[in-house]
Amino acid sequence: MKFRKANKTDIPAIVQMLANDKLGKTREQYELPLPNLYYEAYERINTDLNQELVVIENEVSEIIGTLQLSFIPYLTYRGGIRAQIEAVRIREDMRGKGIGEKLFKWAINRAKERGAHLLQLTTDKQRPAAKSFYEKLGFKATHEGMKLKFN
Q1: Cβ distance 130 to 89 under 8 Å?
Q2: Residue 48 maps to a domain
Q3: Which of 87, 108, 122, 136 is least enclosed by beta carbons within 10 angstroms?
Q4: Count of C-beta atoms within a 10 Å radius of residue 19
Q5: What is the spatial distance between Cα 18 and Cα 91, in angstroms, rounded to a whole number?
Q6: Which residues form the domain of 91?
Q7: Looking at residue 92, what is its pLDDT?
Q8: pLDDT tens digits along 15-68
Q9: Residue 148 forms part of a structural domain
Q10: Which of 22, 121, 5, 19 is nearest to 63 (CA)?
Q11: For residue 22, what pLDDT is reported?
């Protein structure tokens, strides 16, 4: 397996994975050609030095997983850096094979390489299996997350 930075040609495969679950079906628009807004989002991510959109490929160079790693500099923790994982997906036919764990171990190491003192994530309460998976990796539910939606 190979971890690498996503490129523009990877966006359809990434969006397909994002749309391929109970919640993703309600918020993503996977169709070919993809709506241009996904490519615009990719450009914003790709030009931001604090964002890393990553894919994992199998032996035949197929994309089988993805995540976005964000690095948030802030004043607390003596000017620390907080890393945040978002949009973790493993291709449906590859789930249950340990790929998610490998992807997370890669992300944990990458956050440490970038000097983060903490790696955080949120998980939707409608995904109890995901929460259990994260806990097995050492993540702890230490805070109560809150959101304010604008649309």
Answers
A1: no
A2: yes
A3: 136
A4: 17
A5: 9
A6: 2-136
A7: 95
A8: 999 999 888 888 999 999 999 999 999 999 999 999 999 999 999 999 999 999
A9: no
A10: 5
A11: 83
CA dist., res. 83 & res. 50, Å (int)? 9
Q: How many CA atoms lie within 13 A of 119 on its CB side?
A: 20
Of 27, 149, 5, 6, give the one whose Cα is nearest residue 35. Answer: 27
Q: Measure the N-to-C terminal CA separation of the chain; round to a whole number of Å.
A: 38
**Alpha-carbon separation of residue 77 from 72, 74, 113, 141 (angstroms):** 12, 8, 17, 20
Q: For the beta carbon of residue 53, count every other beta carbon within 10 angstroms.
A: 22
Using the Cα atoms of residue 133, residue 57, residue 111 and residue 148 in order, give the sign of their dihedral: negative
- As a whole number of angstroms, the distance between CA 96 and CA 99 comes to 7
Query: Taking all residues of the chain, what is their mean pLDDT, rounded to a whole number?
Result: 95
CATH assignment of the domain containing 24? 3.40.630.30
Question: What percent of the chain lies above the pLDDT cut of 90?
Answer: 89
